[in-house]
Fold:
Amino acid sequence: MAKLRDNLRKLKYYRDIKLLFRIFLLSFKVSLFPSRYLRLLANSKPKTKKSGETKRIIKYVSLCLFIRRRLGLSYSCLTRSILICHVLRKKGIDARVSFGVKRKELSGRGHCWVSVGKDILGSPLDYETIFSYPHRDF
Structure:
């Protein structure tokens, strides 16, 4: 609970509170309709490259997901990845949802995470990327 209070104190500007509120509402929409928001990622094309906001957005998404967990609402790695990717692409950052499987196991366990360029956001541990969405334009 102290961590939540510390993060809320760090909201310095109105735009940060507005962004946090938008992310919180979007988290519910993504939980209810993940396939719809996954399709929307392909339609949103980043216009500019603002890499400075990436850490702030991830911090706010993590805060919203923490609040959801405290309210008893669960989420999956897919929900988290779509949410982060959607918000980053709206802010002009070229983010992708990467899907992967464990290298050493044949159990079919999958995981997804967000990548921005060559940077991997989150920890895919020993997962091998098999697909990224939306596709890169070559």
